[in-house]
């Protein structure tokens, strides 16, 4: 069987590697060059996107910002999973907030800003600490603005005056404090079966995911249940087929949805070594109508992103349970180059392995790793 | 980095899939068509074998019967691992017996037959129950002849008279009874480090491997040590770099080497799901000079070959711990089409999963599976 993936980055690559043992061929679409390629060796296939769409059994996406004409073509073929509306919900914060609100799923207090004149009302409703987020990928990478105190409001108004807020509104979110960021990743199949992986605990630095630990430490039964309910409500509301990721803020036993990603997700890479079925195989199973796989965790796993860095020792793979996944991309600042999965039998052992791992890594690129290692070591078995 | 594999079957395919996460590209040589291809999608690269040999970092083989001119070219490049002599030792039973005998490694009593007139001496030395094996892949697939009683000797002499025994001698082996067949698979790197996987227990039917269980049941410390010593002696004697498989007959605590395979091996496929590092990644690590990976087993695993059969339900992957590996080949009688790995926490649970698995399989193609399931279920935890 054949699957076409919109997007030809590392997520399509890992889908390819996970699909091959099932006898499933993965073709990827470079949506910029508009070419069909092999996502592993990047060789070009001599076929048009139109032909590929007609030839494959299923079409899916590795990212949500797929040009709408392509999504449209795929949707019309009847082969697109998840469906176009679900993908666009992940690509548009206004749609996302609408889905969350209409399904009574707790998320950050927010208002939609589609005119500079909305700003005063936003401050009145949300307070003076606000994050403004572009609702779509529409401002050439400029996506977020922070208001820390209301004195800076005029400056912000001035900045926003040059944006086409009617076309790409902003979502104004109240800045909240929370204990930690977690994510729940799972799959829903065409019959409505839902199957989640254990919750991952995610550490970010300068807006990028650096480390995930799964299963997350100290997850109460209430939080686990709540997260799974949020996942299921969302997946059902979106009539979702495939792997879906939900990022959450946790404060005590309270969960707020931060954002959703209609795809396999960086915070699920740990499943490659830490779960019976990995998220990539699970996605392929779900979209092709195969039975979902078991998601049980095997030990405890840390996933460490390698960001903008090639100057590490590959000998890190000498550490038992330590596996490298290299994407083969040219290095650029802030670019995700690969990741490392480290599996252990206990959090303590995992922490010790992370300290060992640091001997092979330039710590300036892995600024959160030592602290996380020490935190894990201190956890009672 | 790039690795060229002589042979483009499922072993090269699985090397490709295991190498990609390390940032290693695998190119395969179809030694019949003399083409360089991608072993997963079988697409042809526009390069000659000579160019590939000069371009890659390392050359290896997925089978021992590589045409000698290719091995020669690779050996001369200085990039061939394992070395040519080691590969040829696996391809020639006379060389193999020589290596075993000169290194005092126990194997079946045997004589070399290079003339029909040697047959009487063979019967005298080995008794009337003998297996004659072609020493090399030289008789168009005809490789084995059995003598059950000496009355059939004239018939055999007549058959052998038409063979060019000078060019391709036979190895006459005494037919022995033994308790079971096991194999030990491991790797040796350029520094001489040796690292073995747990012993696998192998069930054959009509000359083909049907089921492997690893770690093998009831392995005494003496047997484990003996198997590892045999492995290390052989790997050192061959100055071996890469993954090597040694098939053994076990009787009580006594081990005899049946044959060696200078490559990744079917009885090591269980490591894909049952060991920290799989044999394919381990081979890539060894030949490229990367650190060897941890070989610790994770639970207990059964590997079931799918032979000459496509009429099974793919829904078998709904069983927790059950994973399919499909090679994507056209079906032929006796052809290995794929395999299934089933991982469990105990032999009993593994046996129960195998019974469950049988619900998805046509039993006439998996004739040993029910018995093996029942045997495993009866094992005390």
Would you give an account of this structure?
Two copies of one chain form a homodimer. With 381 residues, chain A is of the alpha+beta class. Chain A has three domains: 79 residues, Rossmann fold (3-Layer(aba) Sandwich); 66 residues, Dna Ligase, domain 1 (2-Layer Sandwich), CATH 3.30.1490.20; 198 residues, 2-Layer Sandwich (D-amino Acid Aminotransferase, Chain A, domain 1). The first copy, chain A, contains twelve helices and 17 strands. In chain A, strands 9, 10, 11, 12, 13, 14, 15, 16 and 17 form a nine-stranded antiparallel sheet that branches. A four-stranded mixed sheet of chain A has the order 3-2-1-4, with helices on both faces. In chain A, a hairpin with a 5-residue loop joins strand 9 and strand 10. In chain A, helix 11 runs antiparallel to helix 12. The radius of gyration of chain A is 21 Å and the shape is globular. At the A-B interface, strand 16 of A face strand 16 of B. Chains A, B: Pathway: Purine metabolism; IMP biosynthesis via de novo pathway; 5-amino-1-(5-phospho-D-ribosyl)imidazole-4-carboxylate from 5-amino-1-(5-phospho-D-ribosyl)imidazole (N5-CAIR route): step 1/2. Chains A, B: It catalyses: 5-amino-1-(5-phospho-beta-D-ribosyl)imidazole + hydrogencarbonate + ATP = 5-carboxyamino-1-(5-phospho-D-ribosyl)imidazole + ADP + phosphate + 2 H(+). Chains A, B: This is N5-carboxyaminoimidazole ribonucleotide synthase. Chains A, B: Belongs to the PurK/PurT family. Chains A, B: Catalyzes the ATP-dependent conversion of 5-aminoimidazole ribonucleotide (AIR) and HCO(3)(-) to N5-carboxyaminoimidazole ribonucleotide (N5-CAIR).
């Amino acid at each position: 069987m054949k699957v076409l993936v919109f997007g030809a980055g590392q997520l399509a690559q890992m889908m390819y590697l996970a699909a091959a043992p099932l006898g499933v061929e993965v073709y990827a679409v470079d949506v910029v060059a508009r070419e069909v390629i092999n996502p592993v060796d990047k060789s070009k296939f001599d076929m048009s996107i139109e032909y590929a769409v007609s030839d494959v059994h299923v079409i899916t996406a590795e990212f949500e910002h797929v040009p709408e004409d392509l999504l449209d073509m795929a949707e019309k073929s009847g082969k697109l999973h998840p469906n176009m509306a679900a993908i666009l919900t992940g690509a548009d914060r206004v749609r996302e907030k609408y889905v969350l609100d209409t399904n009574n799923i707790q998320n950050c207090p927010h208002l939609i800003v589609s005119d500079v004149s909305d700003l005063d009302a936003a401050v009145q409703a949300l307070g003076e600490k606000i994050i403004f987020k572009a609702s779509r990928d529409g401002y050439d990478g400029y996506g977020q603005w922070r208001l820390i105190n209301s004195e800076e409001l005029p400056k912000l108004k001035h900045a926003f005056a040059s944006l086409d807020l009617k076309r790409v509104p902003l979502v104004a979110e109240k800045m909240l404090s929370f204990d930690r960021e977690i994510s729940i990743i799972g799959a829903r199949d065409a019959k409505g079966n839902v199957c989640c992986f254990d919750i991952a605990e995610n550490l970010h630095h300068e807006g990028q995911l650096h480390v995930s630990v799964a299963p997350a430490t100290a997850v109460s039964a209430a939080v686990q249940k709540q997260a799974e309910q949020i996942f299921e409500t969302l997946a059902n509301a979106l009539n979702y087929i495939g792997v879906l990721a939900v990022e959450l803020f946790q404060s005590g036993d309270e969960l707020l949805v931060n954002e959703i990603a209609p795809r396999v997700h960086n915070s699920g890479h740990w499943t490659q070594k830490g779960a019976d079925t990995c998220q990539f195989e699970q996605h392929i199973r779900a979209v092709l109508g195969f039975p979902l796989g078991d998601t049980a965790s095997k030990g405890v796993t840390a996933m460490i992103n390698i960001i903008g860095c090639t100057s590490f020792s590959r000998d890190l793979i000498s550490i038992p349970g330590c596996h490298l996944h290299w994407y083969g991309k040219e290095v650029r600042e802030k670019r995700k180059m690969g990741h490392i999965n480290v599996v252990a039998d206990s959090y303590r052992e995992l922490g010790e392995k992370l300290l060992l791992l640091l001997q092979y890594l330039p710590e300036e690129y892995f600024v959160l790793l030592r602290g996380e290692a020490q935190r894990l070591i201190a956890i009672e078995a």
